[in-house]
Design goal:
The chain has a single domain, classed as SOS response associated peptidase-like (hypothetical protein yedk fold, Alpha-Beta Complex), CATH 3.90.1680. The protein has 4 helices and 12 strands. The radius of gyration is 18 Å and the shape is globular.
Length: 235
């Protein structure tokens, strides 16, 4: 799964990297993004023919859900069942997005101990997580109830680097896959599913970090610093 990640680049940098054209959202650097938090997502607008960088709520809520709390259970979407899972199949068909990330966290369980690790890119400034998004509003609020846009991060099989830590990881899409995933190019469900493969391990780095990341109350640049053993060596 992917339950925490970070995004330390500015909206200006993110917009340049992904080629978005809309007005920039206000989004400060975040080092401990958690479920139900606001997040940034790249979407394609078929009417304008342009990409946009927008703020969504992490935890996809399908349009038929009666409660926004539904999203707490759908922060991740399994790549293997996107086309058949009721909460995700409509979004997989028509509402796919990219979720920029400077890195993400995963925890390795050893007995009663869970050690947090940071996973960051080695050759590019940002990861592009495969994502899905949806529109939702409270039906009990009447016609004037605001639309809330929510999203989920697609997860799949781990690569060789992550496999010793966890049996899932976010699906990270290379640049050449972005147009097809965003819907800029026509693609069948099978062609889209074929994009959801493990990211090359040589393009990412993993290292242990402080247990401070366990608490969502901590959200500072120190969380991403490598955990050092006595003597100054990396654990």
């Amino acid at each position: 799964m992917c339950g925490r990640y970070l995004l330390s680049r500015s909206p200006e940098e993110i917009a340049r990297w992904f080629g978005t054209r809309n007005a920039l959202p206000n989004f400060p650097a975040r080092y401990n993004i958690a479920p139900t938090d606001p997040v940034l997502a790249v979407r394609f607008n078929p009417k304008s023919g342009e990409r946009s960088l927008d703020t969504l709520r992490w935890g996809l809520v399908p349009h038929w859900s009666k409660d926004l709390k539904f999203g707490a259970r759908t922060i991740n979407a399994r790549a293997e069942s996107l086309a058949t899972t009721p909460a995700f199949r409509d979004a997989f068909a028509a509402r796919r997005c990219l979720i920029p990330a400077s890195g993400f966290y995963e925890w390795k369980k050893e007995g009663d101990t869970r050690t947090p690790y940071a996973i960051v890119p080695t050759d590019e400034p940002l990861f592009a997580f495969a994502g899905l998004w949806e529109n939702w509003r409270d039906r009990g609020g009447g016609k004037d109830a605001p639309w809330i846009r929510t999203c989920s991060i697609v997860t799949g099989e781990p690569n060789a680097l992550l496999a010793p830590i966890h049996d899932r990881m976010p699906v990270i899409l290379p640049r050449e896959a972005w147009p097809r995933w965003l819907g800029e190019e026509q693609a069948s469900g099978d062609q889209l599913s074929a994009l959801l493969t493990p990211f090359p391990p040589e393009r990412m780095r993993i290292y242990p970090v402080s247990a401070r990341v366990n608490s969502v109350k901590n959200d500072d640049a120190g969380l991403i610093e490598p955990l050092m053993a006595t003597g100054g060596t990396l654990i």
